[in-house]
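step=encode ok
step=design start
structure_in=
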């Protein structure tokens, strides 16, 4: 009896499904086998020579070379810290260019605000950052600063001087 186009299409979908499940099963089996396999035990040197046998000389294991280290440092994003002190409170957002942070409920613990730009590599730069919302006794403290804003009521701004990231010498 001839098959209709619909039956052929259904059979093709089933074949693809079975092949996909089979491949996933095989991959899971290989992963499990590799993860559960125990490494071969290291040979232990004999402590006392066997009577009548030649002395055993132990050979130190070959040291494996460490992978080469990258000579460049990784760029960091700009991060501001915000918290309140002296009984302050509030909910604020930070605006820098087109970026607007999610609302931040202020506490006595510093909270990081991560901006999308990266820290400069060579020279410092200044930029104006806007704070929107309501807060009292707000403290900002990136790079060890301690800048206090007594009251935010709607919107205020401040200028941040972002220092370049110093790469460690290698």
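sequence_out=
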């Amino acid at each position: 009896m001839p098959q209709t186009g619909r039956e052929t299409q259904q059979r093709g979908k089933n074949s693809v499904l079975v092949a996909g499940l089979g491949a996933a099963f095989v991959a899971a089996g290989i992963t499990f086998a590799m993860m559960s396999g125990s490494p071969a035990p290291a040979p232990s040197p004999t402590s006392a020579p066997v009577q009548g046998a030649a002395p055993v000389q132990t050979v130190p294991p070959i040291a494996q070379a460490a992978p080469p280290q990258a000579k460049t440092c990784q760029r960091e994003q700009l991060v501001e810290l915000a918290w309140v002190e002296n009984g302050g409170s509030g909910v604020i957002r930070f605006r820098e260019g087109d970026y607007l942070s999610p609302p931040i409920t202020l506490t006595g613990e510093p909270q990081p605000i991560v901006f999308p730009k990266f820290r400069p590599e060579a020279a410092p730069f200044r930029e104006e950052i806007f704070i929107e919302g309501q807060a009292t006794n707000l403290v900002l403290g990136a790079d060890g600063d301690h800048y206090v804003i007594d009251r935010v009521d709607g919107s205020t701004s401040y200028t941040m001087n972002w220092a370049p990231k110093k790469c460690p010498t290698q």
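step=design ok
step=annotate ok -> Residues 1-34 form one domain.
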